Amino acid sequence: MDVQSLLDALGGGRPVYIQTHDYPDPDAIASAFGMQQFLRHFGVDSTLTYVGDAERASLATAVRTFGIELVNASQLSMAEDDPILLVDGQKLNANMTDLPGDEVACIDHHPIFKDISYRYADIRSVGACSSIVADYFFRAHVPMSADVATMLLFGLQIDTSYMTRGVADLDLDVFPRLFRQADKTCLEIVESRSLEFTDLQAFGAAINSIRIFGRTGIAFIPFACPDALIAQVADFILSLAEVDVAIIRARREAGLKFSVRSVDPSVHSGYLLSHVMPPFGNGGGHAGMAGGFVGNEGIAESGLDLKSFMRMLDDRFLRYIAEHQKEGA
Ligand SMILES: [Mn+2]
Questions:
Q1: Ligand 1 mean position, distance from CA 175 (Å)
Q2: What is the CATH number of domain 199-328?
Q3: For 97-151, how does the pLDDT look when each residue is reduced to its tens digit (9 = 90+)?
Q4: How far away, in angstroms, is 235 Cα from ligand 1 center?
Q5: Strands 70-72 and 83-87: what pairing?
Q6: Which of 47, 145, 178, 199 is 20 to 30 A (C-alpha) from 216?
Q7: Residue 94: its pLDDT value, please?
Q8: Residue 18 CA, ligand 1 centroid: distance in Å
Q9: How far, in Å, is the centroid of ligand 1 from the Cα of 324?
Q10: SS3 label, residue 31
């Protein structure tokens, strides 16, 4: 990380946009909120923006508690040369809508699937983007408010499933410092409200549809629900003692959304999805957690109805998993 290069890349003091991935989760919002305060220290004003919705109860509580100002991209009139700093995602990712402005900088913790040249890039393979943002404050000795510390800690804990998933040295280094500075009462409020009443329908659908093959659990949610909720359902299925790999498929208007979790070291969730999804759709992510999507065109191209299509993909998932488990054993 180099603060001066970042500031130069962003246009040397002009206002910037900080864009999270679509349907932002706690880590995405924490990273954007943190970078906003960080840049403000150097006299740079910023607007936090995103595509999709950020209305989930858990996030809404956090956004309200810390007074985070998020502007839906549909409300903005962005010019083509307006500088954008991307956080918690990368340009041309399926979940990063290409807004009119100029993506000059990127701070992220996801694997690189498409090589993009930014004026400034800081992409590290760590558990949470929040950890990278915390590192900026600590290394540059920029004062961090309790609100930012609490939000970054929240992001770090959610993305690493409470320090059990994809944890790297940096996550361990920043954790105690964030913890000491965070407001524990606010953190408790934000973390305890992770579900809404209507979310229970998604859990119910997953519980009713789950099938277990070896140590892989596959479930289906037949109605549209936000990515963050699908992720929570995937974590829930993974919490079963019988399951090492959880695969959730969720129907939405435009196609099928996939969320995968793995605690089996021989099964990398991101590789699994990037292997199984094409040519119908795409997917990728971390070893422990990943996401994918197949549009309706992809399903139609297969010549199969939805049910047969899902069964065909399930076979591909299970074959890939069996092969890798054999190699890993
Ligand atoms: Mn993240």
A1: 15
A2: 3.10.310.40
A3: 999 999 999 999 998 888 889 999 999 999 999 999 999 999 999 999 999 999 9
A4: 15
A5: unpaired
A6: 199
A7: 79
A8: 15
A9: 26
A10: helix
Three-state DSSP string of 210-244: CEEECCEEEEEECCCCCHHHHHHHHHHHHCCCCCC
End-to-end Cα separation, the chain, in angstroms:
39
Please, what is the angle between helix 129-140 and helix 146-159, to 10°? 140
User: Are 293 and 94 in contact, with CB atoms under 8 Å apart?
Assistant: yes
**Both structure tokens of 323:** 């092969």
**Fold of the domain spanning 3-192:** inorganic pyrophosphatase (n-terminal core) (3.90.1640)
- The predicted-structure confidence for 66-79, as pLDDT tens digits, reads as follows 999 999 999 999 99
Residue type (1 letter), 156:
L
Cα of 78 to ligand 1 centre, how many Å? 25
pTM (2 d.p.): 0.85
Distance 81 CA to ligand 1 centre (A): 27
Q: In what order do the strands lie in the sheet with 102-108?
A: 70-72, 46-50, 16-19, 83-87, 102-108, 120-123
Cβ partners under 8 Å of residue 151, min gap 6: 26, 29, 30, 33, 34, 62, 66, 68, 130
Separation between Cα atoms, residue 214 and residue 192, nearest integer Å:
33
Q: Spell out the domain ranges in the chain.
A: 3-192, 199-328
* CA 179 to centroid of ligand 1, rounded, Å: 18
Q: Are 142 and 38 in contact (CB under 8 A)?
A: yes
Entry field: residues in the chain: 329
Nearest to 316 by CA among 221, 230, 243, 218: 218
Ligand 1: distance of its center to the CA of 255 in Å? 24
